[in-house]
Amino acid sequence: MSGNKGPFQGIHSSEGLEALAKEQQLPQAGWQQEVQRGHAFGLEAADSIRDRSISTFSRGELPHFAGINTFLKAPYLEDVHQVGCHDVAVMGVPHDSGTTYRPGTRFGPQGIRQMSALYTPYNYEMGVDLREQITLCDVGDIFTLPGSNEKSFDQISKGVAHVFASGAFPIILGGDHSIGFPTLRGICRHLGHHKVGIIHFDRHVDTQETDLDERMHTCPWFHATNMVHAPAHNLVQLGIGGWQVPRPGVKVCRERNINVLTVTDITEMGLDAAARFAVERASDGTDCVYISFDIDCIDAGFVPGTGWPEPGGLLPREALKLLEFVVRNVTVCGLEVVEVSPPYDVSGITALMATRVVCDTMAHLVISGQLPRQGRPSWIQEACAMDVGQAWR
Ligand SMILES: [Mn+2]
Questions:
Q1: Ligand 1 centre and the CA of 293: distance in Å?
Q2: Which residues pair with 211 in a beta bridge?
Q3: Residue 179 CB partners (closer than 8 Å, separation 6+)
Q4: Which residue spans traverse the membrane (predicted)?
């Protein structure tokens, strides 16, 4: 508790007051670098402008409505060979050929980037300033092929493997949920003998072998948990329920001892207990945990821009608190946020929610000391093992 004698002393929560003090401790070097970059690349402002931090061409966060929309206005990294020089790399996977009902998630990465322009890199309660505390880049999108899930999967695995092996923390913006299998396959290629658990936020189990005779967005965890690196008993599913859970997938969850928590389970256990359960199961015998966040785990009223909206999901505050408890208490190796479909969105609120999930995760990684990384984690192997999944057709 700070010694702040603000007007609400003794009335409102200590978090609000503590945040006032935390902000003062944050450096400003990242901001100063951004100003210098603006001047170097975008010219100093016209003579009439008194604030000399402004440049002629917008080259950073400001103004929020201007500029080229990378994620959070992070520098666009055109040369992916340089990705290892960054703590975090955001990449888009504009793939929706695994969709079985409402399409449009191929526009998800651009929709999320656009809404992310609304955010500053600073969070009040957490006292985190991402610009000051980590280096972030946007490597752009994977070159997916809408005519073929399987060829797109190969592209996705290769791209994710490259970023993961570089030591940069991978954040993947989907895309439909079919990408869950190839993203994790990319990570598994560089795990050596190490193992990965999966914490999966969703209304749907996504565990059936095929849907409409192909590997669709209802199928990623059947195939992911066939990989030796990703045991099924380390898969935890949070928020499952409703009228869109296919019975073949339920059978697989039963047969493979997958951990399924409904929304009622989570709210009755309490968010911290549910997160503790998820962390324990996902990390039991594994070296790191992958987080797959399907935006439809949240009640459909908050996320209309998605492929299979389902009422009765988590409230945004519940989902964010669960995410906080999970990320701060487990070794995280990557994050994907999937199923944002801008054509079905309203005022960009679904994309905004996805932005929030990504930014909150980065902040929790900073607070828990996982970012910036002090050297390459031991579970990342330089050698690439292509043969990690079972043969498919
Ligand atoms: Mn879903």
A1: 9
A2: 214
A3: 93, 95, 98, 153, 156, 172, 220, 336, 338
A4: none
For residue 390, tell me if it sits in a domain.
Answer: no
Residue-wise pLDDT tens digits, 98-123: 999 999 999 999 999 999 999 999 99
Domains in the chain, number: 2
Distance, CA 336 to ligand 1 centroid (Å)? 13
CA of 108 to the centre of ligand 1 (A): 15
User: 104 C-alpha to center of ligand 1: Å?
Assistant: 14
Is residue 43 domain-shared with residue 80, that is, in the same domain? no
Instruction: Name the DSSP class of 84.
Output: G
1 pLDDT band (50/70/90 cuts)?
very low
Q: Which domain holds residue 238?
A: 71-367
Q: Residue 309 C-alpha to ligand 1 middle, in angstroms?
A: 8
Q: How far is the CA of 203 from the centre of ligand 1 (A)?
A: 5
99 with 56, same domain: the answer is: no
Backbone conformation region of residue 312, classed left if phi is above 0, alpha if psi is from -120 to 50, else beta = left
Alpha helices, DSSP H, located in 168-298: 180-188, 220-224, 247-255, 263-269, 271-283
Measured in angstroms, how far is the CA atom of residue 204 from the centroid of ligand 1? 5
Q: pTM here? A: 0.96
- Domain end, chosen from 24, 40, 67, is at 67
Residue 385, in any domain of the structure: no
Assess whether 20 and 105 both reside in one domain. Answer: no
22-74 residue pLDDT tens = 999 999 999 999 999 999 999 999 999 999 999 999 999 999 999 999 999 99
Asked if the model's pLDDT at residue 10 lies above 80, the reply is: no
**Residue 209 C-alpha to ligand 1 middle, in angstroms?**
16
Distance 102 CA to ligand 1 centre (A): 12
One domain, residues 192 and 126: yes
Do 155 and 25 lie in one domain? The reply is: no
**Domain contains 223:** yes
CA of 374 to the centre of ligand 1 (A): 35
